[in-house]
Amino acid sequence: MGDQSLKQYTWEEVKKHRSSESLWIVVDGKVYDVTDFLDEHPGGEEVMMEHSGRDATEAFDDVGHSPDAKEIQKKYLIGEVVGSRREQEPRPPAQLARTGVRKNRPAGQRKGALLLRSSYYDCFSSRGSGMATPAGKTFTWDEVAQHNSVSAGVWVVIDGLVYDVTQFVDEHPGGDEVLLDNAGKDATSPFRDVGHSDDAIRLRDGFCIGRIASDDPPSEETPRSSTSSQLKAAVGVAAGFAVPALVLVAAVAAGYFIYRRFKH
């Protein structure tokens, strides 16, 4: 028996709400009207649209959720689904371009958040006037630097916020090398240089786990993006070869000058 205090809807009624003007989903038999949450969804509105008017329980369960996230979820609860469930139509092609979620993977394996990633609300305490306020855990640069591989965890820092993108490495549209090259480092410049859509930024926010401690500014030894470090290394190597080469050239020239002088 369902909860008699909740309004009851049939599957046919739920399936009518599949647009941005009215978007319902079902999780564990409960009906949620998430229309007003589209713009707030860390994974982009496309993921929500894909599950609109459908049972999203499996996709929702694939993503871990904190108690705070589940409390926020409750405010969108409008009822429960009743009656025999008819076979759902084939899911329409997902328009997931630029969200970082691959189209060709089963829904149960996608790493993009369906509703709320727990880490997102651990990282941001509030959203007001389009600005998110950093909150939650803080990390030092030394802690971040230790997470520079898939086995140790892939963390990157963007604008002072720390993101654990370990589970996103295989999903990254630009390939895993880009993330691994910047793992454990400040990736602000590379992230800005590429340019990202609003959906991609919302997806990124879903991986936020905290921020860099304000009393731990990056030192000169703090790793930066691999591009700059590789450039410096290349310059250093070139300089190392250049100095001995110049000395050798000078010695040969001097010897030749002396030889010519004594010969004549």
TrEMBL record:
Region span, Disordered: 83-108
Highest taxon in the source lineage: Eukaryota
Entries under Gene3D superfamilies matching the protein: Cytochrome b5-like heme/steroid binding domain
Compartment list: Endoplasmic reticulum membrane; Microsome membrane
Transmembrane segments: 233-259
Keyword match Transmembrane: yes
Protein family membership: Belongs to the cytochrome b5 family.
GO cellular component terms, A-Z: endoplasmic reticulum membrane
Keywords, alphabetical: Electron transport, Endoplasmic reticulum, Heme, Iron, Membrane, Metal-binding, Microsome, Transmembrane, Transmembrane helix, Transport
Protein name per Swiss-Prot or TrEMBL: Cytochrome b5
GO molecular-function terms, A-Z: heme binding; metal ion binding
Domain Cytochrome b5 heme-binding: 6-82, 136-213
SMART domains referenced in this protein's UniProt entry, alphabetically: Cyt-b5 (SM01117)
Membrane-protein topology: Single-pass membrane protein
